[in-house]
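re the bet — no i am not wrong, look at it urself. input seq straight from the record:
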Amino acid sequence: MGGRSSSSAPPPSPLFSKPWRTINWEFKERDLQYVKSYKPQTDGQQLRILLHGPVGVGKSSFINSVQSVVKGKMSKNAGVANISGSTQTRKYNTYMIQKDGQNTFCSFVLNDTMGLECNTNRRRKVYVKDIKQAMKGRVRDGYTFNPECKISKEDPKYNPDPTANDKVHVLVCVVDASTVSQMSDKVIETLQDIREEASDLGIPQVAILTKIDLICPEIKKDIKNVYRSKILKKKMEEFSAAVGYPMNSIFPVKNYHEETNFNSDIDSLILSVVRDII
């Protein structure tokens, strides 16, 4: 008996037919100029951007990537840990972003913090308290974080009289896109607590999802697929629902990590994120 052969349907595409968020990839130079020339409304003001998040998510790598793209030269000023789940950052460091000349800098700075470790309730509470003090401008540059003990008023790195420039103006939560589904309730609760503290202080918040090339082969193949990726959009929606950041305040980014040469599309994505933060 003969029968008609049946062919299985092709697997669904991992990409949307059209991007669900637009980015002008050809406007890299425009965004670079915007970042370099940005000036806060208040004369002499410096925009302070504080990064926080779990250990090993790429906070330091993001700082290095921003420095590299703006400066036009690969930078490794912020220490990066090579061991998964570990943190290289123990000090509260302020990074000025050099632009055209040796002594010319952008009007914003990036602050790196120790990664969140949620293995004990004490560490979680200490982390939230230290981040809150940093947001208030009460933590001086160079302070060494102690996961077991929050900064005290007797510490020489405690700033009792913060100026407008010492205070944080934008809080950035950095999360590894490949671990969003595995975030524990304790991590989610801590990130929510910090977001609420920032809201109470009137500080706007955004989130960055890093390592996006690890969750989607189509992004690894071509970074321009970032806003066509169904996997990434799902991860962003998952993070939004868990921690409370609206989708339009969440930005995916590909940090420079293994690369030794610049990639124009990676540059464009990094610059678009920095511009949105500003």
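see?? The chain is about 30% helix and 15% strand. told u. also Helices lie at 28-37, 59-71, 121-135, 185-200, 217-221, 230-243, 264-277. so pay up
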